[in-house]
Amino acid sequence: MLLLSLLLARATEVPDLYQRSYDAEATANYGGALAALAELPSSEKSTYVFLVRRAWLAYLKGDFDASVRDYDAAAKVAPDAVEPELGKLLPLLAARRWLDADNTAKALLAEDPGNTLARSRRAWALFNLGRFADAEAEYRKVLAAYPADVEMMAGIGWCRAKQGDAAGAKKMFEAVLHVAPRHASALAGLAAI
Q: Which of 19, 64, 182, 187 is most buried per CB count within 10 Å?
């Protein structure tokens, strides 16, 4: 009977700890969310879900190196998964590791060419690398799939501005402001040209 009680307690321990982690995240207590994960049994700590969860929380907490490491570890557990590579782009971009982000997105797009999230994140990396024509091409591919995406339109506007095409930039920024009149990036872009 004692063994059965222990097994039942252990069976509810894992979900309870994950729930504590989600609850802490919901209040922006990322340290608490990570602490709840740290209490999980060692057998759980090598699972894909644990690694991806910890990577996400490390990103939210601002520990970008730990986040990248955990996303890489998750990718080893599930080598065909897109999620860890896509997730890894967030800490790479936040850490301004533009070249690493570009390379990660490029590899991801080779495997999943229709991944517009990877493409838009690659566009941002390329923009910050000063490769404005390449960034614009990526933004345009996303915009072709999602014609109402004002973030992609603003990205194209900034690329046009950085390439010296004030008229093209103005046209894109005005298109954004037509449907999103308070769009900060488009307003800043118009002010800059």
A: 64
Does the pTM surpass 0.85? The reply is: yes
- Give all domains of the chain, ordered by start, each with its CATH number: 9-95 (1.25.40.10), 97-193 (1.25.40.10)
Q: Which residue has the tokens 């910890």?
A: 54
Start-end of H helices in the chain: 2-26, 30-38, 48-61, 64-77, 83-94, 98-111, 116-128, 132-145, 150-162, 166-179, 184-192
Alpha-carbon distances, residue 162 vs 34, 113, 158, 159 (angstroms)? 41, 27, 6, 5
95-101 long-range contacts, CB within 8 A, separation 24+ = 95/64, 95/65, 95/68, 96/128, 98/125, 98/126, 98/128, 98/129, 99/125, 99/129, 101/125
Per residue in 31-79, pLDDT tens?
Answer: 999 999 999 999 999 999 999 999 999 999 999 999 999 999 999 999 9
- The CB-side HSE value for 148 (13 A sphere, CA atoms) comes to 2
